[in-house]
């Protein structure tokens, strides 16, 4: 029987690497079913991933996204049963999440929206027309609980919070469209919990004991939860325990 393929976008994310590692199986010991897309694929230059399809991008402009999609052969795309979209920025060398409105600024807001909301939607725009796997191709987009408006009791982190709320709204809108136009697509907005990665590293000091997860733990949990979802025309917004999050 032919194997199915999995696409991991933003594959240099700490959690993405753990997903890739987890998807290696006895039958595909060198990543034969993985399609890895990132600006930095150095993690995958090992024997373990020798047979994965690797696509390097310079940035995530729409032109690069379209070109990267076209580099995957249609015969591979039609066998893709899982896609993971892992983009997320919270801080850069030039900015940190805003504690107060006085720190809010247009550059931070637009860069955060671009990476966290716009870029994932461009991947959906260009990939979904080619994802014909039946009965169900699951697309997991990394969101965050902080994107829940009803859960916002702490305030702060204006740009990151808004970017994930915007992402959730666009995913919900896409799910409604896919119910008509791409019935085999199952969209999942996933909150991994606070996970040890470059994104969370400066903010780990106050995380309660036992609440800072390893990327391996989160990847294992996510992949097991995916077994419980079929294409149903809905956006599922869940956390690492597979518990639904209110918008
Ligand atoms: N870690 C946590 O505690 C936590 C909590 C809640 C939600 N999340 C979400 O989980 C996802 C994965 O995060 P992580 O912890 O694995 O973070 P990470 O290791 O810091 O990875 C960062 C990811 O963002 C991408 N990225 C960085 N700058 C970008 C830009 N300017 N434009 C587009 N993409 C850019 C990277 O792509 P390249 O592969 O091209 O470098 C990579 O996929 C994110 O969506 C994050 O918001 C994480």
From TrEMBL:
Superkingdom of this protein's organism: Bacteria
InterPro entries found in the cross-reference section: Fungal_SecMetab_SDRs (IPR051468), NAD(P)-bd_dom_sf (IPR036291), SDR_fam (IPR002347)
Pfam families: adh_short (PF00106)
SUPFAM superfamilies: NAD(P)-binding Rossmann-fold domains
Name the record gives this protein: Short-chain dehydrogenase
